[in-house]
Specification:
Layout: H1 3-13, H2 23-33, H3 36-48, H4 55-65, H5 68-80, H6 82-85, H7 96-103, H8 114-126, H9 128-131, H10 135-138, H11 149-156, H12 159-162, H13 167-178, E1 190-197, E2 203-208, E3 213-218, E4 223-228, E5 234-241, E6 244-251, E7 256-264, E8 274-280, E9 283-289, E10 294-300, E11 305-308, E12 321-326, E13 329-335, E14 340-346, E15 351-358, E16 366-370, E17 373-377, E18 384-388, E19 393-396, E20 407-415, E21 418-428, E22 434-444, E23 449-455, E24 470-474, H14 475-479, E25 484-485
Antiparallel strand pairs: 1-2, 1-24, 2-3, 3-25, 4-5, 5-6, 6-7, 8-9, 9-10, 10-11, 12-13, 13-14, 14-15, 16-17, 17-18, 18-19, 20-21, 21-22, 22-23
């Protein structure tokens, strides 16, 4: 059906069908014919379906037609993925006004201002004869005050400036801008942090024990599991009731959770439930297991709906289980009395298969993936095994065995691809008696030992399932939105 046939169908039936391949021409037609509903519907559809591969194209379209909500959604994605976007062919097609709009924002996710300078250089050199004239108007949007003296000298000696006939004017702009006290980009103050849920309250804890950074936040939801996508989007699943859950997505800029969808859990009143939110290549999956049912669902962020996927064969094995995303697959660990079973799900074929089992660790209490390996530990932290997903083999991790009194729980997680653990247990108190503490540890793979880090603030954090989702957090947003920082 052509665009104008779609318009006529809408006029006569009131029904509008929008798709990615025709949304832009449909918007143009609606704009020409002043059909506000069709235009607004197309705007909302584009804003909800912006992706890294389309954000520059949609941004340019939104600029031409002043589609504000689309432009805002595109800018947010461009800012968050600036390094990748600035290396794409589409980036070179931006106009000078569009380029300066993008690089002028505080929200640009770059670690160093040299990244912005290098992007501008590539944009100019892509069509040097036509674009060199714009350089003096672009340079004030680069925050030269954030550069080191060494980088400043390198920029002033760059051929683009040094060999230009009007280089004195350009050099003056660079020097003048370097004396302006411009704000740091938000990406310059990021830190990988693990998210920990509270047991009885609606509090959450963002933490990086190696940096000694802990930030408590009250969000008003009680989470049961979480996951982080490759785009650094953070999702959690929270209980509305025992038989109903809600999916929330984290808004980094506003430091709040936004409700996305609901999920029903068809479970009996007294049976144990294991819930897992799992990410594979940007796709979100929900896995639920009980003694009577196994459910796997895939989330479509464009339609905000879930669809059923295949489930592993039920051998009557469920006692305790754990699910981890690794190497573009889901690995489900379940235990029998004498051995550990491993089930593997391939999302590309929607099929499960059985992998090598281990009888050295009959129960996996917690696990985390780093690269193509999955690190597993038992409840008492007496043994840590590593499953190599490529070799389909197991080996034991050498090092410390935790022997302090009263181990209650242990959770593994990875920050900057380094293995961490939080151990919950009893510790002697000088005032008499014992207290429950949660202490973080870092595994030194070179020395084969666990090294103690700091204690977590408080002692009411959920240490078993779920595992801690880890994301890159923007500290200026996290620290200034009413969060309690320690």
């Amino acid at each position: 059906m052509s665009v104008f046939e779609e318009i006529l169908s809408y006029i006569y039936s009131g029904t509008l069908h929008v798709s990615l391949d025709k949304v832009q021409p449909l918007y143009q037609a609606a704009d020409l014919l002043q059909l506000d509903y069709v235009r607004d519907t197309c705007s909302s559809y584009m804003a909800m379906n912006v992706e890294r591969s389309t954000c520059v194209d949609l941004y340019k379209f939104a600029c031409v037609f002043s589609a504000d909500i689309v432009q805002k959604a595109c800018l947010q994605l461009i800012h968050r993925n600036f390094v990748e976007v600035a290396s794409s062919e589409e980036f070179y097609s931006l106009s000078v006004n569009q380029l300066t709009e993008i690089i002028s924002h505080d929200e640009l996710d770059v670690k160093e201002e040299t990244t912005v300078w290098e992007a501008v250089v590539r944009w100019v050199q892509h069509s040097r004869e036509d674009r060199l004239q714009y350089l003096p108007s672009i340079l004030p949007h680069i925050r030269f005050n954030l550069l080191t003296p060494y980088n400043m000298v390198a920029i002033l000696d760059h051929p683009l400036i040094k060999e230009d006939p009007g280089r004195s004017a350009i050099r003056n702009v660079v020097k003048e801008t370097s004396n302006v006290n411009m704000k740091r980009r938000v990406g310059m103050d990021t830190l990988e942090m693990a998210l920990v849920f509270a047991v009885r309250t609606k509090e959450m804890l963002w933490m990086n024990p190696g940096e000694g950074k802990y930030i408590k936040c009250q969000y008003g939801i009680s989470s049961i599991t979480g996951a982080v996508t490759s785009d650094n989007d953070i999702y959690v699943l929270a209980e509305d009731s025992r038989k109903k859950c809600a999916l929330f997505k984290y808004n980094h800029v506003e430091n709040k959770w936004e409700r996305k969808s609901s999920l029903r859990r068809d479970i009996m009143d007294n049976e144990d439930v294991f819930d897992f939110l799992i990410e594979i290549e940007g796709q979100l999956f929900y896995l639920m297991l009980t003694s009577s049912v196994v459910v796997l669902k895939k989330y479509n962020q464009h339609t905000n709906k879930w669809r059923n996927c295949s489930t592993p064969q039920d051998d009557g094995w469920l006692n305790r289980c754990l699910a981890v995303s690794c190497n573009q697959h889901i690995y489900l660990f379940t235990d029998k009395p004498t051995e550990l079973l491993v089930h593997c799900y391939d999302p590309r074929t929607d099929q499960w298969c059985r992998k090598a089992y281990s009888d050295n660790i009959p129960e996996v209490y917690n696990a985390v993936a780093i690269g193509t390996e999955i690190f597993c530990t038992d409840m008492d932290f007496e043994k840590t095994l590593v499953y190599d997903t490529e070799a389909d083999s197991w080996h034991e991790l050498p090092g410390w065995q935790y022997t302090d009194q009263g181990i209650e729980n242990v959770t593994l997680f990875a920050i900057q691809d380094r293995l961490h653990a939080v151990v919950e247990g009893l510790m002697d108190s000088s005032s008499g008696g014992s207290r429950v503490v949660e202490r973080a540890f870092l595994y030194d793979r070179c020395d084969g030992v666990w090294k103690a880090l700091s204690e977590l603030p408080g002692s009411d954090w959920f240490m078993c399932v779920p595992m801690f989702p880890v994301a890159r957090m923007y500290l200026p947003y996290l620290d200034t939105q009413g969060a309690a920082s320690t």
